[in-house]
Specification:
binds zinc ion, 21 strands, Neutral Protease, domain 2, 19 helices, 7-stranded mixed β-sheet, alpha+beta, globular, 5-stranded mixed β-sheet, Zincin-like, Immunoglobulin-like
Length: 618
């Protein structure tokens, strides 16, 4: 899409930005948001579990920027559209013409709505496909009670278009309202103002008064209970999981306060969480007002609450200040990863935060061997042409955080903390590019403190591969204390029975299992499992690292437990690398493919896609 100079100037004013980069249109969206932008969305949808569809209409309220424009281009994916109507200035609705382009595997289908005039509102009547990429429809058997079905969404990055026809780019923000019909006995929750007292009579109604980008549209429907945790925090979960969930998440209110002490008021009203069935494909999703969580974070001992800190941190980095396109996604994830460690430090002390940080940095370094150099840069200078050039999915988090940590350590917190808070405050409810951050960094920090980072080093962090040589590596004393015994155990000098693990936290187990990976044979792994029942731990981060080491060691007695893990956990972070490790062993390959045959239908479409890709590799 080309944009005229005049239009760029108009858009500049509207976006409140002087950056030309911000005006390049998002290549992952078909929307002509340089001409017309969605201001508000209303959804009126009915959930049909037998057909696995949502059907009804979406109504978009529009701001027209280009006086000559008469077309509204939207993103869709597998939507069946029955009718589109437009409202005229007098409030009358009339049917209008539209066309759908050819289907694109990555982006879906462009929908062109042809209008006689610049309508203030357009209504699209449609239904979703049972295979909608954002939605997973679970049978009763896939839930804890086994009695009622469940459905949930995962819209990030570009799957919102599979359940709502929208301008599906993080550059466009809109408020939303919704009325959702669901079978009785099921509760509907959304990334909006959930009311625990609502009954769903006349449909479940929602209002999201803060403007959000489309990837934060979220819905969950199931047999759900609500429980209050603190003044503005609460949890929704399946009844059988509620006790464990409420226990695990008990610190959430304190966590919100800790984040506020660092970065200013939480701006979204309530902070609730929805604990999903195990097939949820990721750890957590920062849907505003209602974080979606994997049940695999319920370890029984609150050892994985850093996941909550991460999703909560997104209330500032990501949800409040949003990457303008997915090319800039380190602005969401790198910043959030940095803020997470700061929240953990306030709540649990310096050493816990440091252990977390050291593990994060070590795993980042270790991941570099599998990432092509071009995908190791935080950003490229080239125009945004599509996802093939974006930063590696795993690396954007720790590398972005490492850059901010470096700036913080050199500038000092007295300078850096107000700087970062100022970035969030001055760009609240905006979509931003890396160039905008660089400009802000130069004028609000580096101008006065030029020694903090040279231009050359900043370039190396942003545009170079790997981690710059000048980066300081976090060193936790508690983790350092493990090194001698780990080395002795690997050599066989320290028997398994003599490993002094009594005071180990999950972080120490993760560090130990990372370090012995590929260094110990099946016999030693069996000893570990017998002594510490690692395959049975409630902490899935620990269990995953044990299974990975077991696969590398050829410890196959563990297969029944690993089979149960792969059948019940759908989190991509765990299942994708496990299948990859299994397929790399000739003796495990057929077994892994067999497990996947049964497990596949239990996974979310996102996870299926990732594992399918893994399985197609030779
Ligand atoms: Zn995140």
């Amino acid at each position: 899409m080309k944009t005229s100079t005049l239009l760029r100037a108009t858009l500049c004013a509207i976006l409140g930005t002087a950056s030309a980069q911000a005006l390049a249109l998002d290549p992952l969206s078909y929307a002509n948001y340089d001409q017309v932008r969605t201001r508000a969305l209303h959804m009126d949808l009915k959930a049909d579990f037998a057909k696995k569809t949502l059907s009804g209409y979406a109504e978009l309220s529009l701001d027209w920027l280009d006086k000559s424009a008469r077309t509204l281009d939207l993103d869709t994916r597998e939507l069946t559209i029955s009718k589109i109507e437009a409202q005229d200035a007098a409030g009358r609705w009339t049917p209008v013409k539209y066309t759908l382009d050819k289907f694109d595997e990555e982006k879906g289908q462009a929908l062109h709505v042809q209008l006689a005039a610049q309508s203030p509102k357009v209504r699209i009547h449609y239904r979703t496909a049972p295979t909608a990429s954002a939605l997973q429809w679970l049978t009763p058997a896939q839930t804890l009670s086994g009695k009622r079905p469940f459905m949930f969404s995962q819209s990030q990055s570009i799957n919102a278009r599979s359940w709502v026809p929208v301008q599906d780019t993080p550059s466009v923000r809109f408020t939303y309202t919704a009325r959702i019909e669901a079978p009785s006995g099921l509760r509907v929750v959304m990334s909006a103002d959930n009311d625990p007292k609502a009954t769903g009579k006349g449909g479940w109604k929602f209002n999201m008064p803060q403007p959000i980008p489309s990837y934060l549209l979220a819905i969950g429907i199931g047999e759900l209970e609500a429980r209050t945790l603190g003044g503005r925090t609460g949890v929704y979960a399946e009844p059988q999981r509620m006790e464990a969930a409420a226990y695990e998440l008990a610190d959430t209110e304190k966590m919100v306060e800790a984040a506020e002490s660092l970065y200013g008021p939480y701006r979204w009203g309530r902070y609730d969480m929805l604990v999903l069935p195990p097939s949820f494909p990721i750890g957590g999703m920062e849907n505003p007002r209602l974080t979606f969580l994997t049940p695999t974070m319920i370890a029984g001992d609150r050892s994985l609450v850093d996941l909550i800190a991460h999703e909560l941190a997104h209330s500032w980095s990501g949800n409040l200040v949003t990457n303008a396109s997915w090319k800039h996604w380190w602005l969401n994830e790198g910043f959030t990863t940095y803020v997470t460690t700061r929240i953990l430090e306030v709540l649990y002390g310096e050493e816990v935060a440091l252990m977390n940080l050291q593990l994060e940095q070590e795993e980042a370094i270790d991941s570099l061997k599998d990432i092509p150099p071009a995908k190791q840069a935080l950003i490229t200078r080239a125009a945004d042409t599509g996802s093939a050039t974006y930063t590696d999915e795993g690396l954007a988090y720790p590398k972005g955080a490492w850059l901010l940590r470096t700036l913080e350590e050199r500038a000092g917190r007295a300078v850096f903390d107000p700087f970062l808070r100022g970035w969030f405050d001055s760009h609240a409810f905006q979509s931003v590019t890396t160039d905008q951050f660089i400009a802000y960094l130069r004028s609000n920090l580096l101008a006065e403190h030029p020694k903090v980072m040279s231009d050359a080093e900043l370039d190396e962090w942003l545009y170079g591969p790997g981690i710059p040589a000048g980066a300081k590596h976090a060193k936790s004393q508690r983790l350092a204390a493990l090194d001698a015994s780990t080395a002795a155990w690997i050599k066989g000098a320290l028997p398994t029975a003599k490993l002094d693990t009594k005071a180990w936290t999950a972080a120490e187990w993760m560090k130990f299992l990372n370090d012995i990976d590929s260094q110990a044979d099946a016999k030693r792994l069996k000893e570990l499992d017998t002594a510490f029942r690692l395959a049975k731990t409630g902490n899935n981060e620990v269990a995953f690292r044990f299974y990975r080491a077991a696969v590398h060691a050829g410890y196959r007695d563990i297969r029944p437990q690993m089979n149960a893990f792969l059948m019940s956990v759908g989190r991509q972070k765990f299942v994708v690398p496990l299948y990859a490790a299994l397929r790399a062993n000739a003796e495990d390959r057929a077994w892994a493919e067999n497990v996947y045959k049964s497990a596949r239908e239990r996974y979310h479409p996102e996870t299926q896609g990732s594992v399918d890709k893994q399985m197609a590799k030779q």
